[in-house]
Amino acid sequence: MDTAEIVLQAAQLFIALAGLIGLVVTIQQRTNSDNRSEWWKRYTWSIENIANDNERVRSAAWQNTKALYQSSLITKTEKALIAGLALETLNDDNRKQDDTGGSDAPRNQSSGTPNDC
């Protein structure tokens, strides 16, 4: 076997390895893209159902959002979106409680404070 044949076989081996590495990288990128797509579908479902009238659906949406927040697929921007959504929802709940008195105790009509009865 002369030097030219050795160089040719080494080049063929190098090209085959480069092709294999390219294939593995492509498969990983495709898998990651598919996983991100599924993550986004679950996120969209959660956002659409967080304000659902059905308590069970609303609870499932929040549980799903929590799981998505802890996922390794989430980006910094999406984390900020979910955190902002949770904070806004909490603020809305607090405003609703303030508007309704935030207490089950009857209120004095003149002062807006709970009756001492």
TrEMBL record:
TM segment ranges: 6-27
Annotated region (Disordered), positions in chain: 92-117
Biased amino acid composition, Polar residues: 106-117
UniProt keyword annotations, A-Z: Membrane, Transmembrane, Transmembrane helix
Origin: domain of life: Bacteria
Protein's name according to its UniProt entry: Uncharacterized protein
